[in-house]
Specification:
The complex is a heterotrimer of chains A (183), B (56) and C (254). Chain A is of the alpha+beta class and 183 residues long. Chain A is built from three helices and seven strands; from the N terminus they run αβααββββββ. Helices cover 26% and strands 31% of the residues of chain A. Chain A has a five-stranded mixed barrel with strand order 2-4-5-7-6. Chain C is mainly α and 254 residues long. Chain C has a domain of 140 residues. The chains are: A alpha+beta (183), B mainly alpha (56), C mainly alpha (254).
Chain lengths: 183, 56, 254
C-alpha cells in the first residue's frame, strides 16, 4: 500500500478511489464476459428456439419447398413399424393423422424403444425408395440425430404397464388403423 | 450414462453444491464476525439489522 | 448440508435459524429417502424420474428467490428515502435472495442436463426453455456482479434494484416458454389450474421435495442476508480505519 502522506482534506476521497479502483477492473472483465455470454445465448436462441421442430403433417405439406434442407421433424413412433438392420433403423412417425417414413442412421436413445414415444429427428427429405414394414415408400425422412421428446406425464411402474396401445385420443380422428406390433 | 448413474450424479452434485454454498455462507459470516469482533447475533428477525449487535 | 450451522459457527446463527437449519437438514434427508428409495420408478423413464424431485423444486426456489429480489427492489426504490437505514434492509434481502436463486438455477441447469442425456439423448439443445433458462442464470450473475461494482452504496443499490426488475421479465418467459413455443422440453410438471399428470406417490414426493427445499432456501437467505450486513460493517469499519490511519500519517508528517 502506498503510504505517501496526503493532504488532510484530500485523504478520504483518495482512499475511496484506491479501494474502489482495485475491484473495478475485475468487475469490468466479469461484466464483459457476461455481456458476451448473453449475446451468444440470445443469438443461439433466436436461431433455434422460434421453430424448434415441424410436426409431421406440416413437414409433409411443406416437402417440396423444404427440398433437401435440413430441419427437425416431430412425431410419435408407430411401434409396429420399427425395423433395425445393419446400423439403420426404419420406422414411421405420425402426427395429426399424417404418417412419414424415416430412415435413421445413428444409435437411437434408450427411450426410443417405448411404444408411441414422441421423437424429434434432425435430417432432410429424400426423394427415393425405402422399404418399411408397410411396404415401399417413395419419400422418406433421412435422419442422423434423434432426440426423444418425453411428456410431462409420470406414472408408477408398479401400477402401470407399457402397452402398444396409442395414447388416449391420439388416433381418434384418423381414417387409418395401425397394425399391432409383432411381439 | 445409465439411469442410476445419472440419478446418483444429479443428486450428488446437488447435495455437494448446496453443502459447499451453505458452509461458505456460514464460515464467511464467522470469519467476518471475528474480524469485526462481533459475537453471536441476537436478533432472529432478518427484517431487522441482524448484524448490528455484539457480545464482545 | 446444514451441519455447519450447528457446529459452533455462531456469527450468523440465532436460536430460530438453528431450529430452521436442523429442520432443513432433516427435511432434505427425508427428501432423499422419499425421492431415492420410497417413490416408485416411472413406467417409461424408469429410475431417471428421480431427477424430477430436485430439478422442479430447484427452479421453483429460483423463481421464488428472484420474485423476492424484485419485491425487495421495488420496496427499496419506493421507500429507501423514508427509512432510517436508507433502504439497506431491502437491498440486502434482494441480494441474498438473488444469490440463492442463482445457486438453484445452476442446480436446475445441471440436473436438467443430466436428465436430458438419459431421456432426450442429449445434454443440451438450444430450445426456447433451455435458452431462456441459461439467459436467466447469466442475467442474475450479471446482477450479482453489478452489486459488487464499486460505487456509493445508495447509487449501487439503486442500479441493482433497477437491474433486478429488468431481469425479472425473463422469469414468466422461462415458465411459459414451453407453452408459447415448440420445445424439446416437456410442459410444466406443476402448473396452476392444470391437473398434474403425475400419479400419487410421485406427486406427493414432488410436493414434499418442494417444501423441504423451501425450508433450506429460507435458511440460506436469512444467513446470507446477515453475512451481507457483516460485509457492510466490515467495509465501513475498514474504510474508516484506513482513513483514520492515513489522516494520522498526514497530520504526523506536518
Amino acid at each position: 500500500m502506498d503510504l505517501t502522506p496526503l493532504h488532510e482534506v484530500e485523504a478520504p476521497n483518495e482512499m475511496r478511489r484506491r479501494v474502489h479502483r482495485r475491484r473495478r477492473w475485475s468487475v469490468l472483465v466479469i461484466a464483459a464476459v457476461l455481456i458476451f455470454a448473453m449475446a451468444f445465448i440470445t443469438a443461439q436462441g433466436l436461431r433455434n428456439a422460434t421453430l424448434f421442430f415441424r410436426n409431421v403433417d406440416e413437414a409433409v405439406e411443406q416437402r417440396s419447398e423444404l427440398g433437401e434442407r435440413r430441419f427437425r421433424i416431430q412425431g410419435r413412433v408407430i411401434p409396429s413399424s420399427v425395423k433395425s438392420e445393419s446400423g439403420l433403423t426404419t420406422f414411421e412417425i405420425v402426427h395429426n393423422c399424417v404418417v412419414a417414413s424415416v430412415l435413421h442412421s445413428s444409435d437411437p436413445p434408450e427411450l426410443f424403444s417405448s411404444p408411441w414415444i414422441p421423437v424429434v429427428l434432425e435430417g432432410h427429405w429424400v426423394d427415393g425408395e425405402v422399404e418399411t414394414v408397410a411396404g415401399i415408400d417413395t419419400h422418406y425422412f433421412s435422419s442422423d440425430r434423434m432426440l426423444v421428446k418425453h411428456t410431462n406425464e409420470y406414472a408408477s411402474a408398479n401400477e402401470k404397464r407399457i402397452t402398444d396401445e396409442p395414447p388416449e385420443g391420439f388416433l381418434d380422428q384418423c381414417s387409418f388403423e395401425v397394425p399391432a406390433a409383432a411381439s | 450414462m445409465s439411469e442410476v448413474a445419472t440419478v446418483v450424479a444429479g443428486w450428488g452434485i446437488t447435495f455437494v453444491l448446496l453443502a459447499t454454498y451453505s458452509m461458505w455462507v456460514v464460515l464467511r459470516g464467522k470469519n467476518i464476525g471475528q474480524e469485526l469482533g462481533i459475537g453471536e447475533i441476537q436478533d432472529s428477525d432478518p427484517g431487522k439489522d441482524a448484524g448490528a449487535t455484539t457480545d464482545s | 448440508m446444514t451441519a455447519a450451522a450447528n457446529s459452533g459457527a455462531k456469527m450468523t446463527a440465532t436460536p430460530i435459524t438453528r431450529v430452521l437449519g436442523v429442520s432443513a437438514l432433516a427435511a432434505t434427508a427425508l427428501m432423499a429417502v422419499l425421492g431415492l428409495v420410497v417413490s416408485p420408478p416411472d413406467v417409461i423413464q424408469g429410475e431417471a424420474v428421480r431427477m424430477l424431485y430436485i430439478h422442479v423444486p430447484s427452479i421453483w426456489i429460483a423463481y421464488g428467490g428472484f420474485a423476492l429480489t424484485s419485491i425487495s427492489s421495488i420496496l427499496f426504490l419506493r421507500r429507501s428515502r423514508r427509512r432510517p437505514d436508507q433502504g439497506r434492509h431491502y437491498d440486502r434481502l434482494a441480494g441474498s435472495a438473488a444469490e440463492v436463486g442463482v445457486v438453484f438455477t445452476a442446480i436446475t441447469l445441471i440436473t436438467g442436463m443430466l436428465w436430458g442425456k438419459v431421456t432426450w439423448g442429449t445434454y443440451w439443445q438450444w430450445d426456447a426453455r433451455l435458452t431462456t433458462t441459461v439467459l436467466l442464470f447469466v442475467t442474475y450473475l450479471g446482477y450479482l456482479a453489478l452489486r459488487r461494482l464499486p460505487a456509493e452504496p445508495t447509487v449501487r443499490s439503486r442500479r441493482a434494484a433497477v437491474m433486478a426488475l429488468i431481469s425479472f421479465i425473463n422469469v414468466p418467459i422461462v415458465h411459459y416458454s414451453v407453452d408459447w413455443w415448440r420445445t424439446l422440453h416437456q410442459k410444466a410438471s406443476l402448473s396452476v389450474g392444470r391437473r398434474p399428470e403425475i400419479t400419487g406417490e410421485m406427486y406427493w414426493t414432488l410436493l414434499y421435495s418442494m417444501l423441504a427445499v423451501t425450508i433450506l432456501a429460507t435458511w440460506l437467505i436469512i444467513h446470507r442476508y446477515r453475512v451481507i450486513r457483516l460485509e457492510e460493517l466490515r467495509d465501513e469499519e475498514g474504510l474508516e480505519a484506513l482513513i483514520a490511519s492515513r489522516l494520522n500519517k498526514a497530520v504526523g508528517s506536518h
